[in-house]
Amino acid sequence: MLAATLGAALAFGTPAALAGTDPVNPAGPASAPAAAAAPQAAAPTSQSATWVAGTRAYFVITTPGDTSAVRAAVASKGGSVFASYDAIGVIVAHSASGTFASAMRGVSGVQQVGATRTSDVPADAYNPALPANPAQSTTPAGEPVRADMTQIKADQAWAVTTGSATVKVGILDTGVDDQHQDLAPNFNAADSASCAYGKADTRAGAWRDVGTHGTHVAGTVAAAKNGKGVIGVAPGVKISSVRIAEPGTSLFFPENTVCGFMWSGDHGFKVTNNSYYTDPWQFNCPDNADQAAIIEGVKRAQEYAESKGSLQVAAAGNSNLDLANKTTDTESPNDSTPVTRTITNACLDIPTELPGVVTVSAMGTTAKASYSNYGLNVIDVTAPGGDATGIYSTLPGGKYGSMSGTSMASPHVAGVAALLASTNPGITPAQLRDKLAIQANDVACPSDSRCKGTTTKNGFFGEGQVDALKAVGSTPPPGKFFENTGDFAIGDNTTVESPVTVSAVAGNAPATLKVGVNIVHTYIGDLKVDLIAPDGTVYNLHNRTGSGTDNINQAYTVNASSEVANGTWKLRVNDNAGGDIGRIDAWNLTF
Questions:
Q1: What GO terms describe the biological role, i.e. biological process, of this protein (predicted)?
Q2: What is the dihedral of CA 493, 499, 500, 501, to 10 degrees?
Q3: Sheet with strand 79-85: strands edge to edge
Q4: Could you give the angle at the alpha carbon of 238 between the alpha carbons of 235 and 243, nearest 5°?
Q5: Could you tell me which of 227, 171, 230 has the C-alpha nearest to residue 390?
Q6: Which CATH superfamily groups domain 481-590?
Q7: CA–CA separation, 291 vs 63, rounded Å?
Q8: What is the pLDDT at residue 413?
Q9: Are 294 and 281 in contact (CB under 8 A)?
Q10: Which residues 6+ apart lie within 8 Å of 130 measured at CB?
Q11: Residues labelled as active-site residues
Q12: 3 state SS for 333-374
């Protein structure tokens, strides 16, 4: 999905499957406390006695349910079962036999068999090395609102909500630096893993970045609103890393994608971001037995994730191609020697063209980004992806930098979907898709004959550019907005207050004073939270409810009409037990 080079400052890098660029202008270092690690697990062990050259991976597809008979046949035909997903009837098999696929196609109950690679399975698959844990740099405080966030009105949406910590977003990518200062506050290690090679590796740190791409994407979705670096579209939600890229090549093979979607469904991800295409084929054609099996396997996994409540958001790609009028593929297979082949619209870019997946094109400031793929009835919505200047976000090691690509557009949409899920508890993936279309702002076709359709729906921009403010169901907050983003530590059995000084507001506070509260604290049943008016009147917001739930990220409405607006208001937090600590991360008043 590589686009043409955008110039010396924004040259696209390899591998081709990534829908983004290498970082440019990395900015000054930043650091963060370590996130809680997932429980230590044993390294995956080999499914065969020794790795041998010529080992290839295959999908063996059968009826969902008990796959034991087909799994037994794999061994009898010269293969081994590397992973099995009985719920969808997909087995990942390895074999060095050149007749394995044809032999398995003759087995009773087998529906399809297809090679998932044109290269050997790496020996690393049988005992994967953990990615590096980069040293963390530091950066000066300050997180100016970026142009891409104002473009989709995310900065105004934060006055309504920054998202709920109960909403989990999966970053299916090259991995995520969980210790980055802007990602650690929102990182969910318990639901993170590596799916490289096609089965879950839950060892602590297996989810870390083998490049830079996934960490950049994660920051756009949910970098913390903590006074440092950058702010994500939904800075109050939780993010998990499911690394599906393999080290060295950073390729995203079909078995890795299947594992990622199955993990997402089983771990309650409300949204996943997918800024890649499934290697080694840029387009998978159903008239090819291998590629037909790839389509079916990944499709079943996506449908499984959706059945569990997960919406997939995916990048459209960076080759400036009309996905509604496919003719030629020159980039596949990208794990061996690409060839030029004639294709049709039946050939699919997956996962982005699978049913149910939200396909995202990229905009610059006002126009389609030069590299972005497009296509009437293929593109669902659009978002900023950067063009000449790029999108600024997090990079491993506490750093920051800019990238451009539909990879950068897709996480903006995933963030807006997370805000929608935060303000609509219980919303289904189908309803999320509908709301993403409804809240988008129409973008008309330019004077460009390639752009087909109408102002309300066209091949460049789909239903339009996402609007975070409309997504959270509000207009810009009326009156004045005051906020304190400083961190105030909450110790065991202590009381802490964070002040906000209100000025230039005539008369009394409204009967609908909005109080936005973001408290990071485990076991919020320990906490009593009050708003203190300038005259000392106490308005209770939270009183030791929520039991073992973590964090308070909520907007409260207070009838403060008897209070003079101007003066110093305070958020007071009482911790009433031992064993759990935290901080006031930020809070605000909207008059």
A1: protein processing
A2: 160
A3: 79-85, 90-95, 56-62, 110-115
A4: 115
A5: 230
A6: Galactose-binding domain-like (2.60.120.260)
A7: 19
A8: 98
A9: yes
A10: 203, 205, 206, 208
A11: 173, 213, 407
A12: CCCCCCEEEECCCCCECCCCCCCCCEEEEEECCCCECCCCCE
Whole-angstrom Cα distance, residue 144 to residue 141? Answer: 10
Pairing of strands 311-315, 358-363: parallel
Which residues of the chain fall short of a pLDDT of 70? 1-16, 19-50, 474-479
pLDDT of residue 214: 98
- pLDDT value of position 4: 26
Residue 9: predicted pLDDT: 27
Residue whose structure tokens are 């949910």: 222
Closest C-alpha to 554, from 586, 578, 582, 591: 586
- Give CA separation, 78 vs 55, 94, 95, 110, in Å: 11, 9, 6, 16
The listed CATH number (3.30.530, 3.30.420, 3.10.20, 3.30.70) that belongs to domain 56-115:
3.30.70
CA distance 139 to 30: 4
Q: Are strands 168-173 and 271-274 parallel, antiparallel or unpaired?
A: parallel
Helix (H) or strand (E) holding 12: none
Identify whether the C-beta of residue 5 lies closer than 8 Å to the C-beta of residue 11. Answer: yes
State the pTM of this model.
0.77
Contacts of 468 by beta carbon, 8 Å cutoff, 6+ apart: 152, 153, 154, 156, 157, 233, 415, 416, 419
Cite the beta strand spans of 246-292 per DSSP E.
271-274
Give the model's pLDDT for residue 20: 55
Structure tokens at 32: 């963060």
**C-alpha distance from residue 581 to each of 148, 521, 578 (Å):** 34, 6, 8
Binning the chain into helix, strand and coil, the percentages to the nearest 5 are 20, 25, 55
Residue type, 26: P
For residues 457 and 479, the answer to whether their CB atoms sit within 8 Å is: no
Residues in the chain, overall count:
591
For the record, the structure tokens of 22 come out as: 């290498």
- Domain spanning 147-472: CATH superfamily: Peptidase S8/S53 domain (3.40.50.200)
Per-residue pLDDT, 38: 30
